């Protein structure tokens, strides 16, 4: 099925061609210049933001973890064994390596099975939460293997040897070593940059020798090294300004190096210190199931409330009016009170019409009949009913499952209604495109923007409904507009 | 009859077993004669409220106040001291059972005021709460019963006079769920019908009207029912209703 509702699109274009043109014009060059200026300012200010300080602190605080890396422990143990062996010459023998391996292995087994590894893993996770704002849930607690003695007392105090969470902490410590080196490098960027920057300040204090004295030059740190190759040397006061310039450059680059290091570490923490992909998936599914259950319960409650306060009470009133009219008409023969009877029947008729209207809108709210013919028809009927002209573009080659169609329809209806209510827009563009296994729905308007899911229940409710089927709702609505809300839905659910 | 009810509305209504008997006789008589009751209505749907007021005034009663929530109902009852209150169970602000809670409060504070609660559903739990303690001056009807205007007015007058009015739906639920179903099988179909009407709170005259038989026939059926169920036959309608409801396990 591939439908493109040219009719509706053409109609909308006819209604407001000017506004549409404004919507599709590329961003003006002035705006580009402003954006570039803002980016430069952000780059210059970056070293001095709170976030940078926190990231630097994270790099520093994470360094001790490199020391307890199994690799470092292994090397230390092998060296100790080699020293204790008494020869003190040559390389450690295979026996030394074997002893070191056994020691480190035993240590790791102990750490994992007593739960010490897990407690160790909680430290970088806590640091990441405090300093990087990275919230990673602890891996699910493993039930103790339950070794019990005769009296039923537990004899083993930890989660046991088969604790995946503990072993993943070990993996983290192994992988952390190279990351720690990058973090150390990031710290060097800050310190080296500051030192270089200070060269012109202290140059005069130490270099006040009589003229003619030849002084050995001072090395300047560069990203390539501390001493020797990769550095350059300065021997004169003007030279120190070159050093200061190098320092400034390093300081400007430092935030990005720091961020690269912390991002790598955050990636490791998320992957190895969190609940694991399957567990995380189970958690996500539990959450979305809870949302689905809540959603359907809320739907039923709303339905009951609408019936109770709407059609039901109207029908009761209608029956009452008819009952009273019947009494006014009398049993047989002459009508005792024709005027009152007429009035009551009139009220009853009005009540019946109102009740029918209520029931119709209620039924349509449950399942719009137009949806039976597919989303293209449903969207064009939505577009036709919109108060603001809608430019419609639908291309859905494969029909999604009914549940997805329903969610997509109600999303579109709600987004169009939102735009009509809040945006003060001249036109709305509603696009739906089916890609390989994703349905992309977007509603864009040229209105005032500032849509915020925190302000009302509408958008967050939509996001919840979409999340139930693993979909995603993205809002781009800067103050001043334009607003574009995109809904991604899987084709089947 | 008229004078007595108006006089009682003046505030000298007694409560207790004796008064129950007296009121029951009033309830019995109300089937045919007109009672001038003072009524307060509480209902949040404006159209239905207006229709209800008109219906009640058409039957010669006076609507002192028509309000739309539980708090206003309590205030109106304190102000007007009506003979009977007609209250919707589900009203603002919580839309749950504030009407019923207000009704119970009225029954506690003003035992002389009859309370007729209306609802779109029959909830057995609500029946039990409403009839706790005494069945005198209490009623629970489905809203749709107002379509039978005379039936509804009869129920209203019965409750105003201290009688009972239970919806046929309440009674049939009780009959269905009764723990003594085996005892009920001993009754003939006609007797079961009479039992149901009795449980609704109708007097012998009311039952005779509904079944289009003479009062004597009804008395015979009632005696048969009490005999078969092993209940003590009581002349007072309310105690009779109470006995039937207790038997059914309400």
Keywords:
heterodimer; A: 493 residues; alpha+beta; Heat Shock Protein 90; 3 domains; five-stranded mixed β-sheet; two-stranded antiparallel ribbon; 8% strand; disordered N terminus; B: 250 residues; alpha/beta; Rossmann fold; 2 domains; six-stranded parallel β-sheet; 13 helices; 55% helix
What does this structure look like?
The complex is a heterodimer of chains A (493) and B (250). Chain A has 493 residues and is of the alpha+beta class. Chain A folds into three domains: 63-146 and 156-204 and 215-275, no CATH class; 286-366; 370-490, 2-Layer Sandwich (Heat Shock Protein 90). In chain A, 63% of the residues lie in helices and 8% in strands. Chain A has 15 helices and seven strands. Chain A has helices spanning 6-15, 17-24, 29-45, 50-62, 64-67, 70-84, 94-114, 116-132, 164-206, 237-273, 277-329, 338-366, 375-385, 402-423, 457-468; strands at 218-220, 232-234, 390-395, 428-434, 438-445, 472-476, 483-490. In chain A, the strands form two sheets. In chain A, strands 3-4-5-7-6 form a five-stranded mixed sheet. A two-stranded antiparallel ribbon of chain A has the order 1-2. In chain A, helix 8 packs across helix 9 (164-206) and helix 11 (277-329) crosses helix 15 (457-468). The longest helix of chain A is centred in the middle third of the chain and has 53 residues, at 277-329. Chain A is elongated. The model of chain A is unreliable at 1-26 (pLDDT under 50). Chain B has two domains: 2-167, Response regulator (Rossmann fold), CATH 3.40.50.2300; 171-248, Rossmann fold (3-Layer(aba) Sandwich). Chain B has 250 residues and is α/β, with parallel strands linked by helices. A six-stranded parallel sheet of chain B has the order 2-1-3-4-5-6, with helices on both faces. In chain B, helix 7 links the parallel strand 5 and strand 6. The longest helix of chain B is centred in the last third of the chain and has 15 residues, at 215-229. Chain B contains 13 helices and six strands. Residues 1-33 of chain B have low confidence and may be disordered. In chain B, helix 2 (17-29) runs antiparallel to helix 7 (149-160) and helix 8 (168-177) packs across helix 10. Chain B has helices at residues 2-9, 17-29, 46-58, 70-80, 98-109, 124-131, 149-160, 168-177, 181-184, 189-200, 204-211, 215-229, 237-248; strands at residues 38-42, 62-67, 84-88, 114-119, 138-142, 164-166. The chains are: A alpha+beta (493), B alpha/beta (250).
């Amino acid at each position: 099925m591939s439908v493109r509702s040219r009719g509706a699109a053409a109609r909308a274009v006819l209604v407001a061609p000017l506004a549409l043109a404004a919507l599709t014009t590329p961003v003006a060059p002035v705006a580009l210049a402003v954006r570039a200026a803002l980016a430069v300012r952000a780059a210059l200010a970056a070293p001095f933001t709170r976030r940078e300080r926190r990231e630097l602190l994270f790099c520093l605080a994470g360094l001790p973890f490199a020391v307890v890396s199994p690799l470092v422990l292994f090397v230390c143990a092998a060296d100790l064994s080699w020293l204790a062996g008494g020869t003190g010459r040559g390389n450690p023998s295979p026996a030394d390596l074997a002893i070191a391996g056994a020691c480190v292995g035993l240590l790791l087994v102990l750490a994992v099975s007593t739960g010490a590894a897990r407690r160790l893993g909680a430290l970088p996770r806590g640091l990441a939460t405090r300093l990087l704002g990275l919230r990673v849930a602890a891996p699910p607690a493993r039930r103790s293997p339950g070794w019990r003695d005769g009296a039923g007392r537990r004899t083993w105090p930890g989660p046991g040897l088969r604790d995946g969470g503990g072993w993943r902490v070990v993996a983290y410590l192994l992988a952390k070593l190279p990351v720690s080196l990058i973090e150390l490098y990031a710290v060097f960027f800050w310190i080296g940059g500051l030192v270089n920057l200070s060269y012109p300040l202290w140059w005069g204090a130490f270099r006040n020798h009589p003229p003619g004295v030849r002084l050995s030059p001072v090395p300047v740190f560069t990203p390539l090294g501390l001493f020797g190759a990769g550095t350059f040397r300065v021997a004169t006061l003007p030279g120190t300004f070159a050093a200061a310039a190098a320092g400034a450059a390093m300081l400007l680059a430092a935030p990005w190096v720091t961020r690269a290091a912390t991002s790598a570490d955050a990636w490791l923490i998320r992957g190895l210190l969190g609940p694991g992909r399957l567990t995380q998936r189970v958690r996500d599914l539990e959450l979305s199931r809870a949302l689905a259950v809540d959603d359907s319960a809320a739907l039923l409650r709303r339905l009951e409330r609408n019936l109770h306060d709407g059609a039901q009470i109207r029908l009761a009133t209608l029956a009452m009016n008819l009952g009273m009219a019947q009494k006014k008409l009398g049993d047989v023969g002459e009508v005792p009170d024709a005027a009152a009877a007429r009035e009551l029947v009139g009220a009853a008729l009005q009540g019946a019409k109102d009740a029918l209207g209520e029931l119709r809108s209620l039924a349509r709210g449950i399942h719009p009949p137009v949806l039976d013919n597919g989303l293209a028809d449903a969207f064009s009927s939505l577009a036709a009913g919109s108060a603001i002209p809608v430019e419609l573009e639908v291309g859905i080659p494969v029909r999604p499952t009914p549940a997805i169609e329903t969610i997509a329809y109600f999303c579109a209806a709600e987004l169009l209604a939102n735009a009509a209510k809040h945006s003060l827009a001249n036109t709305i563009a509603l696009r739906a495109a089916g890609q390989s296994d994703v349905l992309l729905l977007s509603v864009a308007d040229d209105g005032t923007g500032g849509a915020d899911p925190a302000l009302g229940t509408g958008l967050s409710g939509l996001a919840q409904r979409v999340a139930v089927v693993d979909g995603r709702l993205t809002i781009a609505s800067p103050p001043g507009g334009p607003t574009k809300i995109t809904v991604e839905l899987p084709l089947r659910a | 009859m008229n004078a007595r009810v108006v006089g009682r509305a003046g505030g000298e209504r007694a409560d207790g077993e004796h008064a129950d008997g007296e009121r029951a006789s009033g309830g019995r008589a109300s089937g045919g004669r007109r009672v001038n009751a003072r009524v307060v209505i509480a209902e949040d749907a404006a159209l239905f409220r207006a229709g209800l007021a008109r219906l009640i005034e058409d039957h010669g009663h006076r609507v002192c106040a028509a309000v739309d929530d539980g708090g206003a109902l309590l205030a109106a009852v304190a102000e007007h001291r009506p003979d009977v209150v007609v209250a919707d169970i589900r009203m603002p602000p919580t839309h749950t059972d504030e009407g019923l809670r207000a009704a119970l409060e009225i029954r506690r504070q003003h035992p002389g005021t009859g309370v007729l609660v209306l609802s779109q559903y029959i909830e057995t739990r609500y029946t039990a709460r409403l009839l706790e303690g005494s069945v005198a001056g209490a009623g629970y009807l489905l809203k749709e019963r107002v379509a039978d205007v005379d039936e509804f007015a009869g129920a209203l007058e019965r409750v105003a006079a201290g009688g009972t009015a239970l919806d046929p739906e309440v009674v049939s639920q009780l009959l269905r769920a009764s723990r003594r179903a085996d005892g009920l099988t001993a009754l003939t179909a006609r007797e079961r019908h009479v039992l149901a009407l009795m449980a609704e709170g109708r007097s012998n005259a009311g039952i005779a009207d509904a079944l289009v038989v003479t009062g004597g026939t009804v008395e015979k059926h009632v005696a048969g029912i009490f005999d078969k169920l092993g209940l003590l036959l009581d002349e007072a309608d309310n105690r009779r209703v109470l006995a039937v409801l207790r038997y059914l396990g309400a």
